[in-house]
Amino acid sequence: MNIYKRLKPILAISLSIFFIFSTFMFTLRITNNVNPEYNIAVGDEYLLQTTFPFGFSIPTDDISKILEVNQVKNAPNAILTNKNIFELKTLDKGTANLQLKILGLIPYRNVKINVVSKVKVIPGGQSIGVRLNTDGVLIVGTTEITDSDTKIHNLALSSGIRIGDTLVKINNIKVQNASHVSEIVRESNGGELSLTIKRDNKEFVVNVNPIKSEQDGEYRLGLWVRDKTAGVGTLSFIHPGSRKFGALGHAITDVDTGVLLSVRDGEIVKSKVISIEQGKRGTPGEIKGVFYETNNPIGKIEKNTQLGIYGELFSDVEGIDKQKSMPIAYQHEVKEGAAFILTTLDNNTIEKFDVEIAKINLQTKPEPKSMIIKITDRKLLERAGGIIQGMSGSPIIQNDKIVGVITHVLVNNPTKGYGVFIEWMVLESGALGDL
Hints:
Layout lengths: L1 H30 L5 E5 L3 E7 L2 E4 L9 E5 L11 E8 L3 E9 L3 E11 L3 E4 L3 E16 L2 E2 L5 E2 L1 H5 L6 E5 L2 E2 L3 H10 L5 E7 L2 E7 L2 E2 L6 E2 L2 E16 L5 E4 L15 E15 L8 E7 L6 E7 L2 E6 L12 E2 L9 E8 L5 E11 L10 E5 L2 H7 L10 E4 L2 E10 L2 E9 H8 L6
Parallel strand pairs: 1-7
Antiparallel strand pairs: 2-5, 3-6, 4-5, 6-7, 8-18, 8-24, 9-12, 9-18, 9-20, 10-11, 12-13, 12-14, 14-15, 16-17, 18-19, 19-23, 20-21, 20-22, 22-23, 25-26, 25-28, 26-27, 27-30, 28-29, 29-30
């Protein structure tokens, strides 16, 4: 009896914790299909579903010009599946807030509905060459210098310069390229130089005296720098009205440091695929291409971001400009299941390959890794082994809409990779301002 009395409070606390946890998990499970925010195009309709006992209410009449919300009383199987179904009819651009309530009484969550522009773009898939000139020069390595007295100097270590920093100016003169740096250092004759360094979007200044190298008698800073990068990727889309484009779906980073390269200027040029290196577990494959007509770039690169490269086209892109524009899908329209991608392989024409959208990650702000894509097309698996480098930027099509873009391969499983929502890329491109 005494043992029971001692255990009774413990059992009561345990049962209470179990009840609270179970209630939380039940609530989470039945509301996880309701996003906190939706972008829905003007003129579209959308069915928003909740599970009993949740329903929506409209806290104000101010949204009547933006959105109509009607509960579907006679939806098929609604009673059997405990579904509350609401039809959203979009009328005009703007933002409305709906309130998700328990039993129509207790507020649980606000759901934001953004009524946005209906956007159409031309899907890409064409292989392109990318040439990028950086803002300043990127420091990709450091080295010690031995002077004529055999004394060893490490100017980077003593001045706090790191690999991955960008050298922007010397003596307040903008650095043009690696050769320009060598010229200024050589002409300094060992005099003090003021270096403007950029790190994490912040600039600071360090003062150093170049060291005359015992090896060749030249003045040196002990910095290895790089000022240009080039590679092959895939064009994602063209906005027909503004001629803005998006490509790659991921940032261009330095191969040695992994740092996102700051763009001074750059261009995209025509590219021809010359070979395909198959992807294997642990070893990513690669599309190898060559640039041609390099004196006539097809577009200029204006920015390099975590979600791809963006700019404006000068001329038509072979195989794309004659294609019809296609609506973009906002993320609530993207579904797990069958889709296809457009990409260019060894025959240098845009081809269609079947894929599966295996997982969708709901996002409230522009971020990469919006979805996981699995290659299901036997032809693509036989020719490339799955997703390979150079395929980044290939548009993903589902239900006659562009839903996203291939970005990265899963190195340990090249049949799978990540994709980014197309709405994030269109927004990033600046083609339409605020959607």
